[in-house]
Amino acid sequence: MKTLKKKNDLLYFALRNTKLRIGLSVVLFFLLLTFIGPLLTPYNPTDFVGPSASPPTSEYWFGTTTFGEDVFTQFVHGLSSTFLVGIVGGGLGTLLGMIIGFAAGYKGGVLDEVLNVLTNVVLTIPVLALLVVISAYVKVRGVFIESLFIGFTAWPWAARAIRAQTFSLRTRDFIDLAKLSGMKPIKIVFTEIAPNMASYLFMTFILMFGGAILTAATLDFFGLGPTQGTSLGMMMNLAVLWSALTLGMWWWFLPPGIGITAIVGSLYIMNVGLDEVFNPKLREM
Amino acid sequence: VRRYFLRKLLIYILTFFVAVTVDWSIPRFMPGNPVSILISRAGLHGSAVEAMYNYYTGVFGLDLPIWQQYLNFWSALFRGDLGISIYLFPMPVTKVIMSAVPYDVALLLPAILLSWWAGNKFGAFAARSKKMDNTVLPAGYILTGTPYMWLAILLAWAFGIVWRVFPIAGGYSFNLRSHFSLLFISSLFMHWFLPFASLFLVQFGGWAIGMRNLIIYELESDYSHYLEALGAPRKLIRSYAFNNAILPQLTGLALQIGVIVAGALATEVVFAYPGIGYLILQAIHNEDYFLLQGCFLFVVIGVLLANFIIDIAYVIVDPRTRAGMQGAA
Question: ipTM > 0.95?
């Protein structure tokens, strides 16, 4: 009964929070476009379907590229890569961060020291430069593999934050009680500690999601994106490579950037909204 | 303090070690023979293939035992030898990169310092003022959500193509040779401005938001409420909050350096600005792996240096670490 009321409270504040509402709507809008978009266009992203370099018309909503590909088709297909990278890369990053953070924070001692050093090392390496070098050597690249690479390098800051949180929870009474009752450490972590920072973990995932999208876009922009298929970063890369700038073909390079910026920006705004929902102190305004 | 630095130093040495090892192992343990990939991409035929094969095998030292290759790589590194660039044959990679580094420093140093300073000031100013919060906050989030290269593209398009205020390609005008004159310096500046502006803006948004959120946390903490109850002036409370909030922002800067550098690399690509980012693009297009690996090492060294400087700054700013308390490594 009591938890039910608490949940309703959260939902009430969540629905009342403008930041959360706006952020969530924008993200959902693009997510919807990802699923519906491909149905609205008869073309494939790499088909040469129309006149070369045509500005937006009723036939080609976002215009066409120098090669006569439909920009709208590329855009909606690119969106799906963006979301895939966000979910897989961000999800994997969060998962690894949780495993390492929980292990280090809960176990402490030597394991903590070792994981700490590992975290700090990966944290200091400029990950994107590393990804560039790795991708340059991989000849066949897919969006999924790219997401895995990103996830495997994105976890350190989350691990650090989760470790700190676990560390402070570890000495609470209810954890001692759980220990006394003979619970296994893994069970304690997942039934006692994780639920107590669920809101925090969720927000970590959202930040990871946005971060993975930005990393992928930068990687794609260097021409190291997926070798088959399309992505928003690749669209920007090709636009710059074929001098869409000097030719004034704004319809080629504006949509992919607007898409990424809107999604990532909304995710961040959503996160502040969530923070206010979960943390009553911040609500005031 | 000494322990704090020793710990940090250990991490940096280890990081460098890992980076070099990765740099060494990627071409060797990737599926496929790097030498035959290089040759097939060079499009050679007949006897040239064998000659090149032997040459590259010798250069990589692939005929030696693995541990010998690894040691050789390190010793070559300490001699500053990163191989010969294929794209700018026969320039040594170290020399190619050294000629690009000044452009990176000129771009990154002012962009990082100014945006950090301005963003913090502005964020602190915007926190808890309703009007600012509703206008500045969304703008800040949109700025941080913007991929660096896209803002660069936008600026290049608006100021370079539509309004024709700034040039959009190169480090200086193509019809000038590098020499010391007012004309040349102004050309350098004009070419520098847009890349700088795009780097500055994206970071500025991030720092402003971070500061705004931190200040709000600080203003809700007990000491602030206590001061308020004592009737301390609002300005004083805010200045204390700012002093406390600046520390996490400094840590944030250390965490962000890698991302910022990557952003700068992408920005350079947009403006064909002759820094390391542009070299990386050329290296990728020309399959110049020595150059690519060299660029990676230089980026690592730069990031490590920056981290070290921030550590020193942290000790100066935070009196607790100075007093001998062990910093959270």
Answer: no
